[in-house]
Structure formats: structure tokens, C-alpha cells
Amino acid sequence: MSDLTATISRIAPGGRIGILGGGQLGRMLAMSAAELGLRTHVYCPDLDAPAMDTASRSTRAGYDDAEALARFADSVDVVTYEFENVPAETARILAEHAPIRPGVRALATAQDRLLEKNFLTSCGIPIAPFADITGVNDLTAAMGRIGAPAILKTRRMGYDGKGQIKLDEAGESESAFSSLGKVPCVLEGFIPFELEISVVVARGLDGAVAAFDPVENVHKNHILDRSFAPAFIPAALAGEARAIATKIVIELDYVGVMGVEMFLLPESAKTSRLLVNEIAPRVHNSGHWTMDACAVSQFEQHIRAICGWPLGDPARHSDAVMTNLIGAEANDWLALASRPGLSVHLYGKSEARDGRKMGHVNELFPLGKRP
Amino acid sequence: MSDLTATISRIAPGGRIGILGGGQLGRMLAMSAAELGLRTHVYCPDLDAPAMDTASRSTRAGYDDAEALARFADSVDVVTYEFENVPAETARILAEHAPIRPGVRALATAQDRLLEKNFLTSCGIPIAPFADITGVNDLTAAMGRIGAPAILKTRRMGYDGKGQIKLDEAGESESAFSSLGKVPCVLEGFIPFELEISVVVARGLDGAVAAFDPVENVHKNHILDRSFAPAFIPAALAGEARAIATKIVIELDYVGVMGVEMFLLPESAKTSRLLVNEIAPRVHNSGHWTMDACAVSQFEQHIRAICGWPLGDPARHSDAVMTNLIGAEANDWLALASRPGLSVHLYGKSEARDGRKMGHVNELFPLGKRP
Dihedral (C-alpha) B295, B299, B300, B302: value to the nearest 10 degrees? Predict the structure, then answer.
């Protein structure tokens, strides 16, 4: 490894990181970069974006503004992003001016459910049965093969339950496809899972991989509500989950942090008990617990990876429960700030709209003591 | 207390904090404010000040620029400072436009060694014998009373061993007083201490007090080198140290975080074993370990206090050893970043001058396991 690392062009303290996207993930990435003495430049079309408040510098311009994108990329040593729906053309322009990490291939794969599922299948990673849907005829045929219930999802731009619809019987196919706008979709077999878990994994520029402990995720209204670190699953399954996440980042030649969501099937399952649900080529909401329970958070880990630094040790020093503050839940900030042992993180968003992620809290417990 | 807290004007998320001074303490205060969804405005005369890089907004102007000071204070909900040598006139101007916390009295007391010692004495807090020195005659008389060795310190502007000189015999008085520029001084009896400890204590706007565990400090070339959390001292002494720090913030009607440095005398001492060395009306280098070993760091604690939020629980979840990176020591960033379990904090300073604080690292250990 010393031969390999010797050839890495590392971004030293004082270097500049470009962050595409101005949400809370960009905000926390910028703070972690500052902890390492690195500067950040956030690029985002929105007024009053949360990340602009913690970045060293910011540019407000559209993702289709080629000139602004080029100037932005020229001003930094590396470009990263906090959301997977970066348009391909945007990524192409940026990549002409600065290294973009994670790379363009990871982005293209993770922003299209069909490409992602084909990629995972090609790696031999177990996933739910799926079908490519370009029209109602495909859907009818696929419902026959996969069976109800199933979930129809748009190939692109889905998140937090948006762009998807559950089909309880084949007869609902036409209305479901219409309600999603007749855009290209995938149909997924519905998985009666026991737990949803995720692994936040990182791969460095030197090829080293480090995975945080798998956590159990609980959703509310299709939005992540809580993550329990660690997931209470047998050590062998936790190891398998880590191995799956590791395989994915290696096969994609990935650099940075990735969130890998998985379903854990009941013990009675005939197949592998772990199926990958989806991957996110970025820091992940289910990794926010690492901010307070590990020496190096997922945000710092991502910054280390894309700057060619050694990855941090992903070991937990504490157990943790992360709870998202969605919409009006953030109005309870005073009560939350009063609870001993709770770390409060607020994203500086002025308007607490329904379903909007406003902040999160981490509660720490001694190792082995989480509820 | 509910009656009292009901009358507190709290600065809610989205509110603005003015920070006077642009060094690493301001930088870390700004990051902690952002974690709570608060905005910051840093005021500093220096170009390329570390705190400007993490603040929402910054003003570069002199501490004697009355107009810029007024505009700055008008733009924020509260003003705080990261260094105790804020000129009295600067503080007066700011206080006309915004609450200044900690208050003007704390600032005046802590920036003048004579006022500080008189204040501590008036509270019945044990300190080393001292004398007010305005001329060589005072010094000769004081050396006769206090005895050699003793330390002559300027009343104002001393830090990191600057502005002080050790007198091993009375005959050195004249040259020592001259070498310090014949400015007003205090003479302190030299204390043959066993340990130097410190307590980082906070007092909220509601009068609540919370003290982090006392730590042991080790200096190198008069600059803090390492802090060991917790200090290995008997529980009764740790309680006494906390009680002393608590008494000081109450007597000063203080709001914010304060560092209280103390000497621990050998068991054979005839007096109290704890003497207060000095107080710092701000976040303190010996509290940097709290960033990684407590749910709420000293920086967040200070922000909470000055914004009228409830203080965080100062309990440790881990033991910690903090090591400063002074000057060229920060060039080892890559080796430090490679050590598992180490949290690296760099201040974004471009030039690693001798004696300059460039960053620090925290190493965590399970409770009760620090070396």
C-alpha cells in the first residue's frame, strides 16, 4: 500500500473543496472540512441555502450555468456533491475542470434505479426481484411475473417515498403508471422485511475501505425517523452487511462515503437474509449518529476520502440513537436542548415546512447499552 | 427557577451572534453556533482570520473603529468575545448596541491581574501571595515580604508566558522591572505546585452553573501542551475545584464559559491545597477535549449560555487527552490523521510560525482508562 499511497495527490490543509448542493448534508460536510483546516466553496441555485452559512465561500447559480460551473470548479481542488440527482451534463462540465469524487460512474449508476439494480445484480449482490417498465404492457407482464404486492418507482428523482406507489393488485397498473407521469420506471417485488438496516461505508483514494457499524432504521411517512446504532443483529449478519457494502464501493471504484440501505428478511427466508434496497452516493441521513458516537464522523470520513487522506477508524465509542426533526418537530428545540446527554443539530432552515428535515438529535449510551 | 427563566429573552435558532476576535476560539465558537442553527458575525482587524472562514458573516475593522463596531453590534442579537484583552472603550461602544456576554465587569476584572487578584481575595478564594507593583521601590519591598523565588507579571496583556519574568533573588528586581517596560505589574509568590489543573465552568443566563471535570495541564515553553481529562486527583479535591470555579462565576454575575486555572499543592502544604492561578473570561484551551468527549462541548456550552439556552450536561462519555499542535508540529497532520481513535482539529492558519497554535488532537479512551 505504501507504493500506492505515494502516488496519491493529497489535498493538504488549506486546500479547497467544492460542494455541489446547499442542503444540510453540504452544511455538515463544510463544517467537517473546516475541522481539518480545509476550505469549502458551495455551489447551489437556492437563496439562503443551509450550506452557504458554514462554507468559506459560495456561488449561487443554476446547475445548467456552464460558465459559473467552470469558474466554480476552477476555484477548488476537488468537487463533491451532497445529492445524487446531479445532471449528467453538470457533472461532465465540472469533471473537465477538477476531479469529481465520487466519480461520474457512481453518480450515473445511483441516480437511475434501473442502472443501479443492473449493477448490483452484475456484482452478485442480492436484491428484490425487479423489472424495467417503459409502458403499461411491461407493467402488466411484470406484475404477472413478480406478483402483488409490488412497488412501482420512477427510475429517476425519487427520494423519501416520492416517485413511488404500491400496487396491491395487477388491476391497479394503468392508474399507477399514469399517476407517476408515465415516465420510465422499475417495478420491485414487495419485501416483507423484518428490519431495515443500512451501512455507511467509505472508500479512500488509496483503495482502503472502512464501514461504520450497521444501524437499524425506522421510517415515518416514508421519511427516516430514527436510526439505532448499532442494529441488534447477529454478528455474522453485521459482517455480511459490511461485506456487501464493501463489495459495492470496490466494484464501483468509488471514492467517498456511500449509504447502502438493506432489508433484513425473517429467519424463515429461503434466500439470503440481506437484500440491498438502494445505494446513495453521498453521506447519508442514517449516518448522522457518527457525528457524536465516533472519533471521525461520516462527514469527516467523506472529506478525508475525497482529499486523499487516510480514512478514520469507524469504531464507535458509544451507542447512539439518532432522531430526525421533521417540520414542526424542530420547534421543540428548547425542550430537546434541555435533555442531558442529547446532542442537538439544527440546519438553520428558516421555514419549518411539513416533511422538511430541520435538524436531528443524537442520544448517546455507553457501548452495549442502547435501548 | 421557572419564574426566572420565564423572563429570559432567548435567542432562538436563526438568531445572530457577534464574535469579537478572529482566532481559533472564534472559529470553533462559530462552528458550534452553526450546529445549533444560529448565525455568526465575526469582527476582527486581521486579514485571513481563522474564524472568518467558519462564520456566516465577517467584518474586518479595527477595535477602535467606533462606527464599524456600532454597525457590527446592531447586526447581531448578542456580542461575545474570544480574547480577554478587549479594550474597555470597545466594550463600552458595543454594549450600547447589543448585550455583551460575558459582561463588561468580567472583562475588566480578568484583563487586569491586580483587579483579578483583588476580586478573588474578596471572594475568599485562595491565591498565591501577591503585591501591586508600580515602581522599583514597591518591588524591593514586596520581595522582602513575599520572598524569592517570585514572578513579576505585567498587570495587562500577558498570555502564554509573555509579560512575565521569574525573580530568583531580590537583587534582580530593577533589571526585571525594566525588562517588562516599567509598566504596572504584580509580583506573585512562586508556588511549588504538584499539578496544574483547570476547570472549565459555565453559567447560564438563568443562573444555572455547570462545570466540566477538572483536567490536568502540562505546559511546554510556557504554552499549554497537553490536557488530561479527567485530572487524577481525589474526588474531594475535584469537588473543591468545581466549587471554587462555581463561586467565581456566581460572584461575577458571569454569563458564558470561563477557564479557571489552579495549582494543586503537595499534601504537605500548610494552606488549602488548591490556589487559583488565573481566570480567563472565555472558552479555554484546556477545554478543547470536550469537543470529542462530551455531548456538549465548551464551545456549544458558551453559545448556549450567552443565548439564554439551558446549559448542556457537562458529563464525559469518554476520557480524553488533548494535545496542542504548536508551530511546525501541525506539519505532522498526515501521520496524526492516520492514528485510529484520534480526532484532528486544524485551525486553517496558513503560516506555521514558532509558538503559534495551529490545531489540536483529542485522543479518546473509555471512561476510567486514560493513561
Answer: 130
Q: Does domain A2-100 have CATH number 3.30.479.30?
A: no
What pLDDT does residue B269 have?
Answer: 78
Which residue of A lies nearest to B337 if distances are taken between CA atoms?
A310
Looking at the partner chain, which of A36, A56, A341 has a beta carbon nearest the beta carbon of B53? A56
Q: In angstroms, rounded to a whole number, what is the distance separating the alpha carbons of residues A334 and A340?
A: 12
Q: Please report, as a single letter, which amino acid is at residue B220.
A: K
Q: Characterize B249-269 residue by residue with b for buried, 16 or more Cβ atoms within 10 angstroms of its Cβ, and e for exposed.
A: beebebbbbbbbbbbbbeeeb
Mean pLDDT, residues B84-110 = 94
Residues 6+ apart with CB under 8 A from A239: none
A368 Cα distance to chain centroid: 26
Third-level CATH fold of B129-189: Dna Ligase; domain 1 (3.30.1490)
Domain range annotation of chain A: 2-100, 129-189, 195-365
Q: What pLDDT is attached to residue A269?
A: 79
Neighboring chain A residues of B299 at a CB cutoff of 8 Å: none
Q: What share of chain B is helix, strand, coil (3-state, %, to 5)?
A: 35, 30, 40
Helix H or strand E segment including A4:
helix A2-6
pLDDT in tens, A122-131: 999 999 999 9
Ramachandran class of B188: left when φ > 0, alpha when ψ lies in -120 to 50, beta otherwise? beta
Answer for the pair B79, B307: CB distance below 8 angstroms, yes or no. Answer: no
Rounded-to-integer distance, Cα B7 and Cα B19, Å = 25
- Tell me how close the Cα of B326 comes to any Cα of chain A, in angstroms: 14
pLDDT at B14 over 50: yes
The residues near A124 (Cβ < 8 Å, ≥ 6 apart) are none
Structure confidence at residue A7 as a pLDDT band (50, 70, 90): low
Across the interface, of A39, A309, A310, the residue whose CB is closest to B53 is: A39
Average pLDDT over residues B339-363: 94
- How would residue B169 be classed by pLDDT, with cut points 50, 70 and 90? confident
* Mean of pLDDT over chain B: 93
Residue B357 Cα distances to B260, B276, B302, B324, B348, angstroms = 20, 24, 21, 7, 11
Interface list for B 267-296 with A (CB within 8 A) = 292, 295-296
- Using a CB-CB cut-off of 8 Å, the residues of chain A touching B312 are 337, 340
**Within this chain, domains A129-189 and A195-365 share the same CATH topology:** no
Mutate to test the interface with B, among A35, A39, A350 (most CBs of B within 10 A): A35
A69-78, A95-104, B164-173: least confidently modelled range: B164-173
CB within 8 Å: B37 and A310: no
Of A36, A53, A56, the CB nearest to B39: A53
The pLDDT value given to residue B77: 98
- Mean pLDDT, chain A, as a whole number? 93
Greater confidence (A222 vs A247) lies with A247
Q: Is the pLDDT confidence value at B161 over 80? A: no
Distance from CA of B203 to the nearest CA of A (A): 15
Taking Cα atoms as reference points, which of B16, B315, B31 lies closest to residue A339? Answer: B315
Task: Residues B195-365: name the CATH superfamily.
Answer: ATP-grasp fold, B domain (3.30.470.20)
Please report the sign of the dihedral spanned by the C-alpha atoms of residue B226, residue B227, residue B229, residue B233. positive
Q: What is the pLDDT of residues B99-150, one digit of tens each?
A: 999 999 999 999 999 999 999 999 999 999 999 999 888 888 989 899 889 9
Q: Is the pLDDT of residue B1 over 50?
A: no
Residues 6+ apart with CB under 8 A from B255: B101, B102, B103, B203, B204, B205, B305, B306
Nearest Cβ partner for A337 among B309, B342, B346: B309
Among the partner residues A53, A295, A338, nearest to B342 by beta-carbon distance: A295
What residue in A sits closest to B341 (Cα-Cα)?
A295
